[in-house]
Amino acid sequence: MDDCLIGIDIDATTIRVACIQDNEIENMVSEEIRDNEDKYLIIDQIAVLVDRVLIPQVSGIGLGVPSVVDTQKGIVYDVQNIPSWEEVPVKAIYEKKFQLPVFVNNNANCFVLGEKYFGKGQSFDTVVGLVVCDSGLGAGIIIDGMLYEGRNCGAGEVGMFPYRNSIMEHYCSGQFFSRREGITALEACRLAAEGNAQIQALFEEFGIHFGIAVEAVIYAYDPEMIIIGGPISRAFSFFKDTMYSSLESFAYQNSLKKIAIEVTEDKRITLKGAAALVLENKLNCQV
């Protein structure tokens, strides 16, 4: 990849901005979100961070957010944990500021694009990236080599699938641990790694539910590969076996053998995927 790009990754508490060239992060800066009640302060905070990594060779900017996105207009709605961002036309704001093309999408789509362009998904045409975080479960979907968003950028809302008189993400995200033990996903991962038998057993139970979520994803999208990311992916070894045991109920076992299930190896893959929004737009323009 010869393009020089900027990626912006916003999560519940942190803004990360990087200049990416030759498939690698050349320069990265990050800050905690200073005031999630002030819409314009966050807009300016992001702009200052972009200025710190911007170089003349940059050809575009991609931004990933944990929210619903109008990807055509570049408007974000109801960003998680940033109440002031109810409706923000970030594309228009930053294109005017930087005089560069800007593309916006949700974090799950950025995750799978990162894997497509820079990670484990490079050799596959149909890939689902499952992002398992504290607040929920989402998916980014690549079909026939291209990002599939759906009409309203909601094609990957697998956490909202009905499950056990509730929804899937209550059992297949950090919510499972907060509801059961009052701890975050990162705390659960730490305790399991430290040998806490109670939390390790909880991860085994989590794996049963997560296997059912994976099964639903396979029925819906029939991918060549599923890549698991997000904080809980770090504890994959604690729920891998029960996940696979749960998948024994899958109706088409011969098909299941052909599907690779992997865990991301790049903790900055979503940030890289935000930058890859620029590349994906170029690909769409060529079709």
From TrEMBL:
The cross-references to InterPro entries, in alphabetical order and at most eight, read:
ATPase_NBD (IPR043129), ROK (IPR000600)
CDD domains associated with the record:
ASKHA_ATPase_ROK (cd23763)
Keyword line: Kinase, Transferase
> At the top level of its lineage, which domain of life is listed?
Bacteria
The UniProt record lists the keyword Oxidoreductase: no
Give a GO molecular function annotation for the protein: kinase activity
Say yes or no: keyword Transferase present: yes
* Family of this protein: Belongs to the ROK (NagC/XylR) family.
Q: Which PANTHER family is this protein grouped with?
A: BIFUNCTIONAL UDP-N-ACETYLGLUCOSAMINE 2-EPIMERASE_N-ACETYLMANNOSAMINE KINASE, ROK (REPRESSOR, ORF, KINASE) FAMILY
Task: From the Swiss-Prot or TrEMBL record, give the protein name.
Answer: Glucokinase
